[in-house]
Amino acid sequence: MFRQCSRCGQPFAPQDLCKDVSKKVEAQRMANSVEGVAFRIYSCPRCQTDDLFVDVCPLSGESTEAFHDRRRELERIIADLPTSDTDVVIAERAPH
Fold it and tell me: pLDDT-derived band of residue 96, with 50, 70 and 90 as boundaries?
C-alpha cells in the first residue's frame, strides 16, 4: 500500500515504518479484541514527523453502509482527540 507523509508528501519507504511501536499498538488492539482496523506508524525522514495510519477493513458480513458508518464514527473520534505531533491518517483497505 502506497503511503506518504501527511505533512510534506514524502513517500514512505519500508525502513520508515516504526516496527517496534507498530507491533506494540497492534498487540494492544488484538488484546482488546478490536477488529476491522490495523495500525501502522511511520516516521518521515524529511520533516521528522510521525504519521499513524489507521487502515479500516470491512468486517466479515458487514454491509457497505455499516462499513462507511463505522469509518465515519472512527473519523469523528479521531477528530476529537487532542492535538499532538503525530498526524492520524485513515485509509480504507480491502479485506485480507
Answer: low
Q: Considering the domain delimited by 14-92, tell me its CATH architecture.
A: 2-Layer Sandwich (3.30)
Domain boundaries, the chain: 14-92
Is the separation of the CB atoms in 36 and 54 below 8 Å? no
* pLDDT value of position 95: 66
- Determine the Cα–Cα distance for residues 28 and 34; give it in Å rounded to an integer: 9
Distances (CA, A) of 15 to 7, 44, 66: 18, 10, 35
Place of cell 480504507: 92
Q: Model pTM?
A: 0.86
pLDDT tens-digit map of 51-79: 999 999 999 999 999 999 999 999 999 88
Which residues, at least 6 apart from 75, have a Cβ–Cβ distance to it below 8 Å? 90
- Asked if 8 and 44 count as a contact pair (C-beta separation under 8 A), the reply is yes
